[in-house]
Amino acid sequence: MAITYQSDIITPEVYLGYMKEEFPERNLFVRSGILETPPQEVQSQLNAGGRLINMPFWDYLSRTAPDIVSDDDTVEITPRKVTASKDQAVKHYWAKAYSHMDIAGIMASGHRKDPAGHVLQHLAEDWMGAEQTMLIASCQGLFADNAANDDSDMIFSVYQDIASPTAANRFSRSAFDRACQTMGDRLGDVVAIAMHSSVFLSVQDNDDIDYVQDSKLEKDIPYYKGRLVIIDDQMPVTSGTNSDKYTCYLFGRGAFAYASASLDADQALEYDRSPLKGNGGGQTNMVTRRHCVLHPRGVKWTDASCSGISPTESELVLATNWDRVYDRKNIKLAQLDVNAG
Known about the structure:
It is a single chain. The chain is α+β, with helices and mostly antiparallel strands. The protein has helices at 40-46, 102-109, 114-149, 173-181, 197-205, 265-268, 313-316, and strands at 35-36, 52-58, 84-101, 155-157, 190-195, 209-214, 219-224, 227-231, 237-238, 245-252, 256-260, 269-274, 283-296, 299-301, 322-324, 333-338. A hairpin with a 2-residue loop joins strand 7 and strand 8. The chain starts with 34 loop residues before the first strand and ends with a strand. InterPro entries: Gp13-like.
């Protein structure tokens, strides 16, 4: 168990308050419209028992030329069959625990509850960062499935493992447009793009970024060609012999279905006191829990390799756990691989 000891806290001068280090997560995934509330029947399954959520849907009606009517009573039109398929999501049952020795808070601020107060102040940010991590892992898994089973038709790459990448290998308007084009005539659905900060630097150097002041977030938000830019250093970077491959993800609105289950107050946040710990100084433990669905629409969770109740980050990235069930045009996701620098 990781515990905050007195040595973990910088004892401030009397006139200084405790300086809280802000969580570095940007959390724009949950504020950009990428996540969308699923239908009520999905939410009701989330609050019910079981691990998996069934999400049936009507199959895409392919475009065909209409039949020509006739005055010949011996000719009959052949009806087209309407079929249904099933998407499937896995429920995420998550918990986070924090612990501190009371003397640590007393030495820092004069009050044993100060470390717990710091956690509570940033708990929402912490959970959004965790969800962001799992969303990126899900993208890694579904695109790995796409590469293995669907001829990489959701992926466009200009990356080359070369010592001196050129402008043609880096993020560009042309590369972005071609990644959007993997969606066919739905290419205009892209509303956001997530990239590593090293890739963002190249885009910024090309003077392709517009900034918009966001009053809620109290900072300028970057946009690229009218699409929100999410800068996250958790984005995949694959080591190469000569240069690394940087992966960017393009999102349409509602690319992921997201809903959180209603938990009792003492289940969502629970405290535990151990007064004998620290030779009587006391220890405070805090557990916070979240049950949710965070699912890429149209890519079925196969549950082929999941050892626990819910998948871990390392299980989410496995191609075998995903299978595309929507027509490609109805998947509001695309991948772009580039060099950086």
